[in-house]
Amino acid sequence: MIIRRPIVLRAQRGYTLLPLLAFVAVAAASLVYVWAAPRDDSAARDQRTAAALALARDALIGRAAADDTRPGSLPCPDVDNDGVADGAFGNCTSYLGRLPWRTLGLPDMRDGSGERLWYALSSAYRDNAGGGPLNSDTPGAYTVRDGTGTLLASDAPALVIAPGPALGSQSREAGNQALAAMYLDGENANADSSYVAAPLGSAFNDRVMIVAREDLFRPVVARVAKEVQAALERYRATNQYYPPANPYSAGGPSYFCDPATLRGRIPLTIRGGSPLTGCTAHAPWNAELPTWFFDNNWHLVTHYAVSSGCADPSPTSQGPCMANGGAGALAIGGVSSAVRVLVIVSGPARGGQGRPCASVADCLEDAANSDGDTSYVKPSQGPAANDRLAATCGTASPCAAMP
Questions:
Q1: Domain limits at 247?
Q2: Strand partners, 264
Q3: Which one of 211, 246, 273 terminates a domain?
Q4: Are strands 375-376 and 330-332 parallel, antiparallel or unpaired?
Q5: Does one domain contain both 197 and 228?
Q6: Handedness of CA 171, 122, 92, 58 (dihedral sign)
Q7: Per the confidence metrics, is the pTM higher than 0.85?
Q8: pLDDT value of position 395
Q9: Residue 50 lies in a domain
């Protein structure tokens, strides 16, 4: 059986997680109430299981958004049932085990039958660079189908499973606590990439909560957008201008800045090589961006736009740039027409979008943001859009809180 509950977490201020943490605290308090309820009938047990699964899912998403070195990553499973993730430096001992509730700062949560939750993690999402670059373009490993074989999820980063009471020959004595087959049923017990969320019955009673890629990256991309905006401001504070962009048509591995490109990717390399290549009149990066940004290829799914006056390194451009966005100022509808610089970080690809982004339309869903001009809109939210925007405006017209 699959448990579905809507994600209500919103990181409205980039990587500020106070709203998210407050929600988790409320959810934890609600869970305590469910556990303390005097009734012990089937409905109460189901409610307890649903609350535990939802809180676990939300805590994992919060952990992914808050990670300091690899945003989007998740802790390893707990293989010895002590509540602590197992695997030094993110090298997981196993990718199927118990939910590491202590590591996540949660109470000792159990389902309606009193069993601790199980947890499956995609190896690419472990908190270790050995998993490869991790960003919103990284698919999860797990597929989930219902009892009829209908696909429910094709690229889930993680799953949380309530095992329910023992069935058939399952024996849950102390020596079997690490054996998935003694807790999980059928296809769910073999530690491969395929899982089932079937109706409950005499041979199956697992309840599966999918940690979907869309849900996981919603607060992560908001955090990335704000961090990139802050990094660009650090660069401008040092150099009095912003770097130009890297064209979508220009490939790697250096992803050089192009002085004539004002809308494209964040440049991996502003200037370098011998003879000097790139934006030769502009200063190189000086650790303004966190190392995880380029290490995890976030620049390949981040759209960057800067006003022409604010990318001009000449001293005469600096005053107008700060005051009103300078020559070629950007505009965000309903927010400001004096935008100096903006970034839009993409969630997982939608429709026919290609990744990594080879054009602005591959990155962005809103037509007004991918038409190549200087006018932008706040990204749409909903089933067809998942971008997040952060911007800096001229001092005469500060930007509204975004995304």
A1: 216-393
A2: 304
A3: 211
A4: parallel
A5: no
A6: negative
A7: yes
A8: 77
A9: yes
